[in-house]
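Ticket reopened. Same input as before:
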Amino acid sequence: MTGKVYLVGAGPGAPDLLTVRAAEILSRADVVLHDALVHPETLALARKAQVYAVGKRSGRHSTAQKFISKRLIDSARRFDTVVRLKGGDPLLFGRAHEEIQALRRAGIEFEIVPGVTAASAAGAELGVSLTRRGVARSVAFVTPRSGVGERHNDWAASVLAADTAVIYMGAGLAEEIRAVLLDRGKGPHTPVVLVENASLPGRNVHRGTLADLPDLARRMGSGPAVLLIGEALETSIAEPAVEALLRRA
Amino acid sequence: MTGKVYLVGAGPGAPDLLTVRAAEILSRADVVLHDALVHPETLALARKAQVYAVGKRSGRHSTAQKFISKRLIDSARRFDTVVRLKGGDPLLFGRAHEEIQALRRAGIEFEIVPGVTAASAAGAELGVSLTRRGVARSVAFVTPRSGVGERHNDWAASVLAADTAVIYMGAGLAEEIRAVLLDRGKGPHTPVVLVENASLPGRNVHRGTLADLPDLARRMGSGPAVLLIGEALETSIAEPAVEALLRRA
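Engineering reply: fixed in the latest deploy. New output:
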C-alpha cells in the first residue's frame, strides 16, 4: 500500500489565492515538499504535516530535481498524503513534467491540483484583461530560460505571434529580451509592464515600452516577476483611473 | 458613497477550485451577477446576496454586454459589495475588458480576483504539464471566435509559433481549425486532446491527432471544452498509466 502524491499549485503569492481544494488537501497532508516562494501562511495550513523546503538553486537544477522526485516517491511509500507544493500553477513553468514521469515510472498514484498562475495575478493587479474582443485573442506564456546553460531564442517566435505575451522568469534577461524582440521586428514603443511580487504586499509595477525594458528591470527588487508585453497593456499606461489604482499599490 | 465591484474568477468548474478569496467575497456579497456555467455550489456561497444569471447568448453579445455593464454600475450605486462572477479567470477570454472600461468611466471602484483557467484544469485532468523543460517553453491560449460574425485567422499564427496551444471556445470550429492549421504547415500527426467539462464529474476526454480533430469534436457533448495541441500532449496518448487514469474519468 502506497500513498498518493498531490502536485498542488499554491497560486501566485497571496495565501488567499490558494484554491479551496488545495487548502483541504494541505490540512490532511502527512508530508509537504514545497518550493522556495510559497507563503508561510499557506504552509501553516499543513497542520499535521512534516514540511520541507526543496527550492532549487539556479544552475544546480538536474541534481536537485532527481532528489526531489526520489523524496516524493520515498514519501509516498511511507505516508498516505504527500503534497508537492509549487508556486502558481504546477503545469505552467512548474517543472512538473520530471516529477510526473518519475511518479509514473514508480507506479505511484498522483493527482494534479491546478492553481492561479502569475500572469492572471499580474493582470488583476494592473486591472487589464489579457484578452480583448477583436483586439487580443491570443496570449502566450513563455520563458526564455531553459536547462543549465541552455538558452534558445524560439521563445521569441511565440511572443511575436501572440497579441499579448507574458514572459516568466525573464526579468534577469531584460537586455537579451529587448535585443531579440527588436531585432525580429517588434516595435520599440510596444507597451511593457514588469510586475514583481504580484498579489503580495511588496508588489512593484514598472511600466514603459520595449525600448525601456532594461531600465525598468534595473528598478526592480529581487522578488519573482512577470513581464507583460502587448497593446492590451496600453490601458494600464494611458488611463488616469489605473494610475490612481497603481499608486495605492 | 458607491460600493465596490469584484470581477471574480469562478475557476474551471469544480466548486472547490475556487480561490479562498473568491469564497470570502461571495460570502459577504450583496449582489452577484454570474455567467451561465458557474456551479450551483459556488453560487450557494453567496448566502445573503441577490443572485442573477446574466449569461450571454451567442450572437446577441453587444446588447447583452452593455446591459451587464449597466447593471454592475447600478448595483454598485445601491450596494456595498457587488460580484461579477465569471468562469475560469476573468482576464482570459472572460470579456472583462468591456466591463472594466465601463466601471472606470463611471468612476466605480473595482478589484479583480484571478481564478484557475480551463487550460490548467484540462492539463491537470490529463496529467500532462503544458510546459516542459527544453521541449515546451511557450504556451499559447487562443480563441478562433471573435465579435458577432467576425472571424479572423491570426489566432493560427499564435498556435503555430507556440510549443503547446490551448484553444478556447473552438470545439464548434473543428473543421476550420484543422483546415487552417494544416494549410499553414502544422503536421497532421500533431497530438490533440479535447477536454470537455474539465474538473467536473461529466468530464470527457477525446484524444487523437490534428487530422482526426473533426471526428473527435463530433463525439463531444455540449459542455464547455478546450482543445490542447502540441507534442507535450504526446505523453497523454502514449503512457499506459495515463490511460488508466483517464479510464477512471
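DSSP finds ten helices and ten strands in chain A. The two ends of chain A are 50 Å apart (CA to CA). Please confirm and we'll close it.
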